[in-house]
Amino acid sequence: MTEEQRSPTGKPMVEATPMDVIHIRIGSFALVFCFAVLVLSLVGRIWVLTGIIVLIMAAIGLYMLGAVRRQKRLGGGPRSRG
Fold first, then answer.
1. Cα separation of 17 and 65, whole Å?
2. Is 53 exposed, middle or buried (0-12, 13-18, 19+ CB in 10 A)?
3. For residues 36, 63, 27 and 42, what is the CA-based torsion angle, rounded to 10 degrees?
4. For 24-71, what is each residue's pLDDT tens digit?
């Protein structure tokens, strides 16, 4: 484990790029929206839309996984390898 770093003003410093944080937050919002559309498409038995939404959710999940892995690679967190 690595120690948490602090700035000269005493604020915790995080070893993550702002873009990775933005990608994770927007991705999580998109997943919630997609889940709602998925439930509605299942209830309405719109199978084509269900398939499209599942593919979109998988793509968003993989994209978010990549952003999380980039954060871990930078180090600074408890599960970092740095």
1. 15
2. buried
3. 0
4. 899 999 999 999 999 999 999 999 999 999 999 999 999 999 888 877
Tokens 């408890």 belong to 78
- CB of 71 closer than 8 Å to CB of 15: yes
The answer to whether 34 and 60 have CB atoms below 8 angstroms apart is: yes
What distances in angstroms separate CA 58 from CA 4, 14, 23, 77, one per listed residue? Answer: 33, 28, 15, 26
Which tokens go with 11? 């604020």
The set of residues, in sequence order, having a beta carbon less than 8 Å from that of 20 and lying 6+ positions away, is 67, 68, 70, 71
**How many CB atoms neighbour CB 54 within 10 A?**
13
Looking at residue 46, its amino acid is: I
Concatenating the DSSP letter of every residue in 17-50 gives -HHHHHHHHHHHHHHHHHHHHHHHHHHTT-HHHH
